[in-house]
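User: Sequence recovery, please. Input:
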């Protein structure tokens, strides 16, 4: 099993927080051993922020299986979104095009958060999930019916229920998929900060029937900074690390945003970003 001490920039796309030791299990046996220590599991770090904790992390980056079976594909938790998009273009099928442009995202992370964009969500394509159950210590499968009951807007039973090992998705033939992917990338760039900035994506979940970005904009937070971190000038719900921002600066920014929105609209914003 490989173990590395990594910088926050190597673990997350925003690069905030303290360096961490990261374990890379290569087998279920190794993963089971680490999970007994109650260590958190992190994906590609595209919607994550590291605290100042020294608790080691587990990465499922080496769980990279990919199996096609008719109109389905089973993908390991460590398969990158970028790899899936390349496969889609090569084999001409529809799956994750609506997520194109999210840096370093992994299948496990996308499923665990029920990632979505432009009116679509991962759960719509999900058929089943194989996961390591936290309570029983067994490998179990979650079928479509249970997924429908347990998944909602940026909400799933994971990681509390267990650690995702792989997921099976429904796919369909799409000869124009290359053009669709390019269209979603262009749409993302027209509304969100450019990919080269150090950002963790959407900071807060959208309240029901409302846009977190709109509310943050209305209370004057677009472009607002505290120290070396702030909200994007382009989209008020995107946090951008403008230097070597600290976790305390991130926390202060989040609380300032929550305070302003709660004062103005009597709404308490819920974080979409996961803190490790």
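Assistant: Recovered sequence (276 residues):
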């Amino acid at each position: 099993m490989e173990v590395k001490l990594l910088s926050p920039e190597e673990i997350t796309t925003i690069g905030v927080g303290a360096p961490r030791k990261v374990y890379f299990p290569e087998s279920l046996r190794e993963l089971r051993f680490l999970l007994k220590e109650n260590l958190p599991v992190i994906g590609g770090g595209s919607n994550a922020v590291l605290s100042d904790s020294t608790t080691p992390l587990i990465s499922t980056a080496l769980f990279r299986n990919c199996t096609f079976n008719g109109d389905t594909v089973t993908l390991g938790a460590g398969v990158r979104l970028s790899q899936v998009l390349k496969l889609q273009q090569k084999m001409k099928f529809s799956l994750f095009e609506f997520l194109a442009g999210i840096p370093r995202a992994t299948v496990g992370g996308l499923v665990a958060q029920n990632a979505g964009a432009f009116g679509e969500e991962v759960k719509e394509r999900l058929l089943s999930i194989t996961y390591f159950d936290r309570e029983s210590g067994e490998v179990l499968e979650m079928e479509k019916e249970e997924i429908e009951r347990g998944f909602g807007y940026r909400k799933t039973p994971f990681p509390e229920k267990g650690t995702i090992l792989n997921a099976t998705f429904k796919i369909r033939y799409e000869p124009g998929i290359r053009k669709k992917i390019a269209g979603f990338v262009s749409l993302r760039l027209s509304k969100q900060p450019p990919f080269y900035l150090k950002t963790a994506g959407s900071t807060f979940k959208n309240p029901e029937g409302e846009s977190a970005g709109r509310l943050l904009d209305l209370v004057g937070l677009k472009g607002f900074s505290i120290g070396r971190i702030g909200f994007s000038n382009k989209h008020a719900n995107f946090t951008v690390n403008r230097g070597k921002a600290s976790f305390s600066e991130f926390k202060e920014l989040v609380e300032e945003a929550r305070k302003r929105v709660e004062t103005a609209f009597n709404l308490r914003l819920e974080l979409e970003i996961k803190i490790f």
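The longest strand covers residues 162-170.
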